[in-house]
Amino acid sequence: MSVRRRTLLKVIVLGDSGVGKTSLMNQYVHNKFSQQYKATIGADFVTKELQIDDKLVTLQIWDTAGQERFQSLGVAFYRGADCCVLVYDVNVMRSFDSLENWHDEFLKQVSSSPPSPNCSSSSVPVVVYANPADPKSFPFILLGNKIDVDGGNSRVVSEKKAKEWCAAKGNIPYFETSAKEDYNVDPAFLCIAKAALANE
Ligand code: GDP
Ligand code: MG
Q1: Are 54 and 2 in contact (CB under 8 A)?
Q2: pLDDT score at 114
Q3: How much distance in Å is there from the Cα of 81 to the middle of ligand 1?
């Protein structure tokens, strides 16, 4: 009898409020898009099962509940992340300029997670989280969202500019997406899952 192990991968999604983080997740997980702006959702994360080669993978995708406006997401949000997805809106320059902050904030938060307690004298199992803080090897992915808006006429960040930023950060993969039109959402999340799996 063969036993197939299911791998749980934690993915966190960061970026300015309004860039479409929740919409991208909804499109990917529920195949739904809503024009209505909801700053909060009920759950901390949503899950999606997928198969990568012969591996069964559960992606656990963590969304913010609007606290990104205050940049106070808390340690639990960041802890144990296997991949960090950064999102900006190609029509809003400020959301692109903020990427630097989100990138730094992620690395700061994961490197300041408290060390796992020494449990040699205890029978209580302790979950040991890998420290993912190596900025050169930790998998980030960048999504430039809302490319559908005004047929592309209102975009202010070029693909070239975005790719230059990614190259400077150690060749972060880049996808242009539309949560509204379901453009490139599945390929982006497949890349995210593979990156998270490689980091596992
Ligand atoms: P979040 O704050 O980053 O989670 O952003 P939301 O997912 O709540 O989206 C903010 C607003 O942008 C909502 O009104 C969405 O309907 C809209 N939106 C999100 N993604 C897209 C997109 O790809 N195209 C368009 N036209 N609107 C989008
Ligand atoms: Mg949201």
Answers
A1: no
A2: 55
A3: 24
Cβ-based neighbours of 51, under 8 Å, separated by 6 or more: 57
Q: What is the CA radius of gyration of the chain?
A: 17
The Cα angle at residue 113 between residues 112 and 117, in degrees rounded to 5: 125
Q: How far is the CA of 23 from the centre of ligand 1 (A)?
A: 5
Q: Fill in the DSSP letter of residue 70.
A: G
Rounded to the nearest angstrom, the distance between the alpha carbon of 19 and the centre of ligand 1 is 6
Quick one: angle between helices 185-199 and 21-30, nearest 10?
Answer: 90
Closest ligand relative to 64 C-alpha: 2
Q: In the predicted model, is pLDDT for residue 145 greater than 90?
A: yes
Sign of CA pseudo-dihedral 180, 181, 184, 185: positive
Entry pTM: 0.87
Going from the C-alpha of 53 to that of each of 11, 57, 129, the distances in angstroms are 19, 10, 26
Nearest CA to ligand 1 atom 6: 20
What ipTM was reported for this prediction?
A: 0.99
Q: How far apart are the first and last CA of the chain?
A: 25
Q: To test ligand 1's pocket by mutation, which of 23, 32, 73 has the most ligand atoms within 8 angstroms of CB?
A: 23
